[in-house]
Structure formats: C-alpha cells, structure tokens
Amino acid sequence: MLRDDPARRTAVPPGFVLARLVFCAALAGALHAGLYGSERDDAAAPPAARLALELNRGICIDRQFRRIPPEPIMRFSRADIQLIKSMGFEFVKLIVNPQPLMCEHRLDRDKCAYLEEIVEQVVVEGLPVVVCLHPEWEFKRRVLGDPAEFASFLLFLQDISEFLGARWSERQLALQLMTEPVTEGLDWNDLQLQLWRVARRAMPHHTLILSGDQVGKIEGLIATRPVADANVMYSFTFYDPFLFTLQGAEWLTPAWWSYLGPVPYPVDPDLMVARMPDLLAKIPGEPAVWRETVAQQLQDYAAAGWNAQVMADRIRKLAAWNQSYGGGLKIWCAEFGCYQRTVAAEDRYRYLRDVRTALEANGIGWAYWSYNETLTVMTSDRTPFGSADRQTPDRQLLQVLLSP
User: How far is CA 125 from CA 119, 120, 403, in A?
Assistant: First the structure.
C-alpha cells in the first residue's frame, strides 16, 4: 500500500525493439497453440482439489522492495518470522516485485540472492511460504495490456518458477502467479491460462495460486474459468466495504479519506443518522464537494446494512461459483484486513471476526494483511516496519483471528 516510485526509462535501439516484438509475437503464438499445454486444458470439468500445500491461517509481510539491495525499511529478519510463528500463524506470504529481479525480461541471476534470502528466512523456521508475484501498478498495467509485454513476462515467470521449484519442495512453498490482476482489452482467462501453463511446466508438483480479474475482487473470481489441475487454489482479496476497512487512509485520494472515521460496523440507516454529524464535522469544509461526497458514501454504506449476514452472503457467492464447477475447487483469500488508525477498536475486531467466520464456514483459508507495516497485528504503540523486538502483538486481535 505504499506509493510507487517513478519508473526509470532507458533508450534502446529501434532494431532491438522490432526484433523483440517479432520474437514476443512468435512466443505468444506458440503458447496459444499449446507449447505449454493442450488447447483444451480448461475445457473439461476441473478436478477436485488435491493440494500439495494446505494454506489455512497465515499472514502477509508487506515489504514491497523496489530495488536490490532493497530499501532498509523493506527488509525483515528471522526474528520477525519467529514472532509470527509464536503468534500462531501457520504460513507467511511474501510479496515479490518482479521488476527489480529482471534483466532484459529474464530473471537476473545476480539478483536472486535476496530472493533466496527472504524465502529461506521463513522456511528455516519451519513455516511454509507463499511467494506472491506483486508488480507495481504501472508495470502490471503494461504487462496485462500489451501482448508483447505479456509474452516477455512469461519468460520471467518461467525463470522464477524454475528457480523456486529447484530450491524448495512442494511442502515448503506455493507460488501466487499474479496479485490483484486488472485487464483492459485482453481476456484475463486467456492470460491466466498461459501463466498457469508456464508455471506448471516449471513446477510440476507445487501448489499454484490463481486469481480473479477486477483487482482480485469476488466478482472477478466468479468470472474465472478453472483449469484442469487439482493442485491449484483460486484466490481473491477482500476489503469490503472499503469505506470501513480503509477509513483514515493517508495514501488514498481524494484526501478526505485521511479524515474519515470512526465509521461504525455493523451499520444500519438509523445508526448512521446518529453518527453522521460527527463524521462530517471531521471532514474539511473546503473543497465543499468533500462533505457532499462523504455524506453520500456514508448513506450508501448504511443502506447496504453491512453486518455479519451481509458479509456471509458476499462470501457465499464464491461457494455458488464453486458448486457450478462441481464443488471441488479450493478457494483462498489472498488478503483481508482493516486499517487501524481511525476505526473504533471494537468495531474492527467485530468486522474481522465476521470475515474470518464467513471464510472458514465456506472452507476458505486466508492470509491476513498484514504483519507490521501500514496495516498490522500489533498494538497502537508499535513501530511500523520496525524490528521484532520493538513490537507488541495485539492479543485481542490474535484471539479474533486464531482462536478455535
């Protein structure tokens, strides 16, 4: 959830560009013709899940490195993993930015030492790890919007899949192929099929994690075509409703978000009528449109009546999608969480308990966002991105997330 840095641009000779486009077009055609799998890989009813690695209750470490060596704030230590393990989480999800690991569209072997270091820090403590390919927004938009760029990305995916598969077993590591995809003009189902083929060829025994389109929302996942592979999970991210989970967020625009809160949960229209004056009083009066916008959003939020039942109904859409393919697919929540700055603590706990309950009632494992970064499982006196010895886990939150 940190802001992007401007991407560097490097001039290349026109002949190189033309040659690369021709090569990438040929590669894309070969993939589409079935170089990495049958043309009908996803045509039959998908098999019931048989996973090499079960991922039930885990946590994400939100350290999005943008260069290697990484920025100091983006590093974590073995002590962090020990603290995570002591809290009771069963696995760790690491986000891996592809761009700093690339050289001419391939995995830069000179940069692999850091990737190996962060994965090994988790594995050596006896916890499985999910490596999540987590591009910056502009890089993702380019890769998923241009066939030539996508074909180049497949080369990188092949390299990193081979690298990971050769070093850690299927009981130690799973690979999430793309976080929160969003496409314009290209069919995500077609793109994801190619991603899966490449990764599966390189990692024949590891659990692979696929995603829905529309930035990973539920609506994107239920539009996803499953693949003919029992060792995959189908993932989504869940921050519904944003007006509650991201209240107080300083990184969102318009800037009224940072003044918003405490928005209540659960909610109904009568409660919002009582709370509205205080909530609007915290929003600056200029520009005038801010208070009008916030008032409308609060009214819409209240009208939806967000509570445990509404949450459960949202998650049940995924169960219905699963049943439409025979009911044997494994669905996984790749992220859920709630920002803590302006929310009432008890409302946050109640919301997270309701989400966890709805997920687990439908057999959906999850990865909480996040450890100790912008969002956290620590108490309010924590040091964001700080060392493990300067943190105090929020025991009430851990009870909400991990109690039997």
Answer: 10, 8, 22
